[in-house]
Description:
35% helix; 9 helices; single chain; alpha/beta; Arc Repressor Mutant, subunit A; Rossmann fold
Amino acid sequence: MTNKERVLSFVQDNPGCTQKEISNELRINSAQANQKLHELMKEGLVKRDEQKRPYKYYSSTDAKADNISQPPQGSAEDMLKNSTKENLLIVVSCSERKVWGKENWGPTYVPAIHAYTGKDVTWLKNNVPKGKDFHCVILSAKYGFIEPEHPICYYDVTFSDPEKGPISLDSIRNQVCYQSRHFGGHEKKLCDFRYVLVKGSTQYVNNTRIAFDSIGYVQEWNDAIWNKVIAKLDP
């Protein structure tokens, strides 16, 4: 039996379980469980209660799932047409490169926007207009979604090496579902963003998609998309 078949069978026998419960019971990792659930939802075999967080999953034939909606759809065209500064979140990846030297990092805390010296955070510093009400966060392999002003200390953690203890996909998903971030003088829930534009490697894009699955449309950054967004929102 494939993992997809196992997930479907488990949901049919145990309606109302969360992704974490499914993952734990079947002993498959969270990302794989999420992928299989998403495939089953697209096929109409599984539905998710959008009113419950963490989300609970049901067989599409289960009477309890009558009021459960399908995941919201989106596209790049939809984002370009309907995005505003209020509903668009810009996400950039952290980097291995930081202001500290590996031999002399010490206990110092530095705002993330200045601590990371990789290309994506540098792009954020140089290309997103300051004081123009854009909402931006950095996706850190240690901390998850953080504000650019969030203080960090030196660390050596990466999503690509599980042995280094990166933040889990369940944790960044819960950050989106339950937490707020401070943007300038106001606070906003991450789950309130309808569109998410991600600048980073494929892994960071995919992790963001998992975190915002069925909450917001996630688009990988490219020059053409960004030029249209900035022309519309900051003409």
